[in-house]
């Protein structure tokens, strides 16, 4: 039994948000079927890659799993006869590559467990839902006040965060949501300090932060319990989705959307900014803002999942903001994420890109100005506005806040504040290190692309021809100058002439007789 009682690692070092890329390098004829050889790479580091073999049937199985999203995907059709012919295999390889490109370009699909298992089975072979249920069952042994009603399988996009609908035993009609999270790569709190800070979360009071009923943690992960809200999050409201459904079904390609008018955008935006300001003033890192982490109650928005940063979970938009060195603090991350949230409210769909430089002219000027101040390439490179800047912006400054029924409150002991600040600094340090790696590889990639460009190839060919011509000319010149004279074997022609001139007598001075004309 000792083998099974080893203490598990206190955090998962693999960052699930680092994007995977895949290139089909070859097609192998295995007599009974074709194997497609795929090179998979995690992130920008070319050494971080591996090779997998997949059959067409594997692609078809992946496609079946992704159908729940209703996103149109161009899987090439099945062919019974002639599917081993060389021309057909080459054509299918190109079509399958296009299929992979489209899947991996979609943030929702690329983060799904189905895609991760297809490309990286070594890291994603575990039954994560079952493991989470075991941890939750152990929790209920020590806290027997609740019981599980049903698991909310794949309700969220995170592979290592799982949700369960529960009920208090003393209030069987009440429904609550329990979330279990494995510690992520940004967990820099000790297990003791993590437990201490999570215990404080139920005491947080703020009109725009959704309350936590109970929170705890151990060396395997963390738990947070909140009241179940039937209408769900801002993204559920926008997609007209049921909170309990699979996240791909809810958010992939909804049949209809709920539009946000300008007043919604102003009001919800201001409320979210007020919540961010409160956390920033308290020194609490957040970094997990998106429509799915904002609960909508009536006309009030309230932030969710404040525990994520303490548990070290990576941000949904991490693959985007790691491209910009100016986005180097947790506060900057919140502003960048706010830009993506605002974009989704305005346009009704996710940006699915790091930046956007061309916004439609018909946008209301205040909305366009805020989006440009956050999401353009130049703003990401030169610096983003602060929360205070945005609250003072004309788009949000005139939104009435009203009188809250309770005063915002979050009391963190001084010693714990220092621990949280240290963890925040280490989160930002890891971000900076990752940005340096990405920047370095991007420079190398640009240099290689420039070196391999058609113009550079032509210049190199022209330069090479010129050098060869010069070399041939020099060789010909040496050959001519080095030809052997018959009169003086082994000597040069110029050398023989010089010798001859040196051997001949010097001319005598002219005399008057020489000048006479005959």
List the helices and strands and how they pair.
Layout: E1 20-29, E2 34-42, E3 49-54, H1 56-66, H2 86-105, H3 107-110, H4 113-119, H5 128-142, E4 146-152, E5 161-168, E6 176-181, H6 191-200, E7 214-218, E8 221-227, H7 234-239, H8 247-251, H9 262-281, E9 294-297, E10 300-303, H10 307-311, H11 318-321, H12 330-347, H13 365-375, H14 377-382, H15 387-391, H16 414-451, H17 454-481, H18 493-503, H19 512-515
Antiparallel strand pairs: 1-2, 2-3, 4-5, 5-6, 6-8, 7-8, 9-10
Helix pairs in contact: 9-12, 12-13
Structure write-up:
The protein is of the alpha+beta class. About 45% of the residues lie in helices and about 15% in strands. A five-stranded antiparallel beta sheet has the order 4-5-6-8-7. A three-stranded antiparallel beta sheet has the order 1-2-3. A two-stranded antiparallel ribbon has the order 9-10. Helix 9 runs antiparallel to helix 12 (about 330-345). It is globular and about 95 Å long. The N and C termini lie far apart (about 135 Å).
